[in-house]
């Protein structure tokens, strides 16, 4: 009897948890730091869209295209770094880790299954395409008779 119970407990896989809090609990927390980081990120993203239009007026080196691209990329990266340090950013990182764990659990199809399913999809696309083409010709003919 105890062997069956041990076997059942071994068969049932325990979920792997990365954090003690759920992603939703972390994402819904608010703080002054989050507000400040969100404002910085939004300001950096807005500034990155305005670099090529306004910066060359005030800074001579900004007339170079590569300088503009570099500043734009730096502002976007800065914005993403600011967002990564918010509670929502840490919840997103947890979500990505959990998604990676779930991807390891996926049973991927074999090469033969993939080829078979691909041909089935292609064949169905051809059949449905032919049906739509026939219906289109019929409706064009009917509209031509009416008009």
| Overall residue-averaged pLDDT value | 85
Rg from Cα: 28 Å
Shape: extended
Class of secondary structure makeup = mainly alpha
Give the low-confidence spans.
none
Task: Name the helix and strand elements from N-terminus to C-terminus, one letter apiece.
Answer: HHHHHH
Q: Ends: how far apart? A: 82 Å
| Total helical elements | 6
Q: Please tally the β strands and state the result.
A: 0
**Largest sheet data:** none
Q: How large is the share of residues in beta strands?
A: under 5%
Helical fraction: over 70%
List descriptors.
extended; 147 residues; 0% strand; mainly alpha; single chain
Written description of the protein model:
By secondary structure, this protein is mainly α. 80% of the residues lie in helices and 0% in strands. The chain has six helices and no strands. It has helices at 2-11, 23-28, 32-58, 65-84, 87-105, 111-146. Helix 3 (32-58) packs antiparallel against helix 4 (65-84). The radius of gyration is 28 Å and the shape is extended. The protein starts with a helix and ends with a helix. The model has no long low-confidence stretch (mean pLDDT 85). Belongs to the SecE/SEC61-gamma family. This is Protein translocase subunit SecE.
């Amino acid at each position: 009897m105890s062997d069956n119970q041990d076997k059942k407990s071994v068969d049932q896989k325990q979920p792997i948890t990365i954090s003690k809090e759920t992603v939703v609990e972390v994402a819904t927390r608010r703080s002054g730091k989050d507000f400040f980081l969100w404002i910085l990120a939004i300001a950096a993203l807005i500034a990155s869209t305005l670099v090529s239009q306004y910066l060359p007026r005030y800074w001579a080196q900004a007339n170079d295209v590569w300088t503009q691209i570099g500043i734009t990329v730096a502002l976007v990266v800065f914005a993403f770094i600011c967002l990564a340090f918010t509670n929502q950013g840490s919840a997103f990182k947890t979500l990505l880790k959990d998604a990676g764990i779930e991807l390891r659990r996926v049973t991927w199809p074999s090469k033969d299954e993939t080829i078979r399913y691909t041909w089935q999809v292609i064949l169905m696309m051809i059949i449905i395409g032919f049906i739509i083409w026939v219906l289109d010709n019929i409706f064009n003919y009917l509209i031509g008779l009416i008009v």
